[in-house]
Write a structure and sequence with these properties.
Layout (H helix, E strand, L loop, with lengths): L29 E7 L3 H11 L5 E7 L9 H6 L5 E4 L4 E2 L4 E4 L5 E5 L2 E5 L10 H13 L4 E4 L8 H9 L3 E5 L8 H9 L4 E3 L1 H12 L12 H19 L8 H14 L5 H9 L2 H12 L9 H16 L7 E7 L5 H14 L7 E8 L2 H9 L1 E3 L8 H7 E4 L2 E4 L1 H6 E5 L11 E6 L8 H14 E9 L12 E5 L4 E4 L36 H13 L3 E4 L5 E5 L17 H4 L2 H17 L3 E9 L6 E12 L6 E9 L20 H93 L3 E6 L4 E4 L1 H7 L22 H11 L3 E7 L2 E11 L5 E10 L1 H20 L7 E4 L5 E4 L1 H6 L4 H4 L15 H13 L3 E10 L3 E12 L10 E8 L5
Amino acid sequence: MPSDDRDPGEDKPQDHPPAPASNAETRPIGVVGIGASAGGLEALSLVLKNVKMDHTAFVVIQHLAPNHESMLTELLARVTPMKVVTIADGMQLEANHVYVIPPNADVAVLHDALHLLPPPAGRGPRLAIDYFFRSLAADRGESAIGVILSGAGTDGTFGLKAIKAEGGITFVQEPATARSDGMPRSALESGYADFCLPPDELGHELSRVSQHPYVARQAAAESSHLHEHLSRIFILIRKEFGNDLTYYKHSTIERRIERRMALHKIEKLPDYVRYLQSNNREVGILYQDILIGVTSFFRDRAPFDLLKETIFPRILEHKKAGDSIRIWSAGCSTGEEAYSIAICLLEFLGDRAAEYKMQFFGTDVHPRSIQYARRGSYPQNIALDVSPERLHRFFRKHENEYQVSRAVRDMVVFATQNLAKDAPFSHVDLISCRNLLIYLQPVLQKRVLRILHYALNPSGFLMLGTSETVGDSPDLFMLTDRKNKIYVKKSITSATGVEFSLEGAAKDPVEPQRRPPRENRSGVTVHQLADRKLLDRYAPPGVLVNENLEILQFRGRSSPFLEPAPGAASLHILKQVRPELQAELRTALNRARTENGPITCEAVPLRDKDSNVLRSIAIDVIPVLDPGASSGCMLVVFRELNMAKRPEGVEDAPAPVEPHPQVRDIERELEATKDYLQRTIEELETSNEELKSSNEELQSSNEELQSTNEELETSKEELQSSNEELTTVNDELQNRMSELSISNDDLANLMSGMTTAVLMVGLDLRIRRVSKTAEALFNLVDTDLGRSVSHLSAQLKNVDVERVVENVIARATASEHEVVIGHGWHMMRAVPYMTTERSIRGAVLLFDKVDEKRQGLDRSLEAAKHASALLVNITHPLLMLDDRLRVIWANSWFYETFRATPDSTLGVQLHTGASTLWANPQLIALVDRTLASGVGFNDLTMTCDFPGIGKRTLKVGGSIMPGPPGRAEQRLVLIVIEEATKDG
């Protein structure tokens, strides 16, 4: 953090920021993000009042009205001794300061500086807390702290997930203490909250946690001690969950362990190991912390754009209509990655989606994540990552959640799988395994990559995370897009030896045994041996190299041109060739690879190592297609162009001296001996060749047997993969059957407990399901299911039920009819049967008994007729109310005076009246009193503003009206309305 060296009275701003202090004098500032919304001011005040954290800055993100000035800064300044300021763009963080978000802005943190960004238009609901928390997690990692206080909605849930995924610590206000519990409850239900406390205790716990070595950055001193206890922790986890974490990255596991120690106020690792041994629940929480996935929809958008632009078209090059497209998301966590790829493929295919069978597999080692993925429901915060168009097309809104549409969910099968030891899927076109390998040690990375190589189709694609590579397995995958880390499967000539065993993850992967390509040597003749001799003797020396420039074969006497470089052993041609030839050879290799044709470098000088003679060398580089592999090789040939030159300064040799005759005899005898030895050697070589041929025949037979064995092993692996796939599908079906069973039980209980009669009718107008009440009402039995709805016509004589159902299905609108069933009146309501995807699949008929309502209506009509006969001669506006304060009669003077109609008056309750007259609280109170006591009133004066009439001052009186003959006990209230004098 920059330090301020100015004098106390100096106000002149500096042209440049002051230089940061040395590491010995400063340590990183802690940052605590606090998110709040409705009702959050009180909780914020309590937290800041009780927190005591030195060398820490607090950033408050509250939902504010975008077009109104906020007083939050001034209000918080009254409750904390820390300095409270409103955030300005580029403001540097300082310890013991509280920074408050301004209206209509998003806040991000980068390298101790706060930056303001305008919220994007059309993003949906404002999610300023999620935006800042994500930024805080990316900038501060495991030292980030997030706090969620009172507020409505789900903002902050995804932010806590990001903080916890990085190893940070999260706090949530106890929902019972929040004025609005939407945000705290959403954070708790997501499982990303470490502490749930009332605001005052939350401040104290923040202070305590800040002193723990994990947060105070002193945990490194414990690292060496930590390794001594990791094995015990791994044993406890393996015993509980069956997953061996031995070959996971220990640094990641150590940080998670230290984090759990901080939350439990444990500072010594042996104490934490003992705590684990006595608490199985903590073992589960630690395991979940270690496996927590950092994922979101369309994370790092560039790879998904590349899928649609390049990868999917290349996959479809080998597909025809009716073929399957199989995609596997390995380590899918909570499913966002699998759904994102499915959405991209649907967008790419468009109207052609129906031409292909699309199968998506999502697997993860954590069962809870798979259960979450199967539901496909995510907080509305995903609007930060998913465009409004995709939300509308591929998601359905349910309260504060978005659920992936049924069509997409049905395409993706999720299953629990340990990638390191369980059998993989097979014949897959694309595997997405992003940000999984970075958590594995190289030995396990290599095994996983071989399994993924096995699962892919020829020319299948592997998509890794931006920080991942294939490491020590370049023979399995070839990079096709460096920026987005997308690889294509290489075809290899030998079996990979993939082993699907329960202990496979704990063993060192065994390199596949490479066998040389077979050559048919069974028909070797003397002529072929002679040809080989000529090539060995007269052909120029050279080497054969593969696409990685590694030497595959030495041809002829190549030692004058090769000289291994000191250091680690390597067969790379540029490390084997003599230094004088490296530059020319490198150029020739590059040109041959680029131009795909032979290249020659002429007159390359080379000094003989023994005689110091300067030679002129030509280097030929000739591309060669290797029939045993999909990639090409190159033949490098060295040729001598001219006779040797003497070094400068060396005098001409004297003329040769005629040798002595005896010397000539010895030379002839020596020459004869050499010829005899040469013939003997050639005969021996011929015998050796014949033996080699016999041996190669045996090897060929052996290789055929091995090939047969490999085919059997491959068949076994495919059966294991098919079995794993069937197991996965079976698990998914069992899960759906369980959900279906629960839904059926719920529906059966609902139908049996309803007093309303319910019938469900299909598109074919046949009865599909009936409630118990409907069975009794229509005298239906089990065999009536599947019969036409017209079967009910015999009991519904005053309505054509078949035509009603047809209209409801055709128009997708509800309708109501009063029907007579037996001797009773019922209200029949017909509504469309609609799926979650908003498609019509029939109709639902509901029957409510309305005998009592009709009797009440009949009584009211009879009372109205009685009142009309008695009060016909009165020239004042009159109203008659029943005991439910409904208008059951009004005289003609009322309609004429107030310009009302029977439709807008009769049946209206005083509580819900449209005009000020009906909703007057004094009038309602007096009428209630009259009904209760029988004592009328005549002293109510009120002024009302009537539409089309204007203001009128009225005198209103009321009295009990006797009921019609035979029902004198029925209580009615007569309201008499008179207009007051104009000057009154």
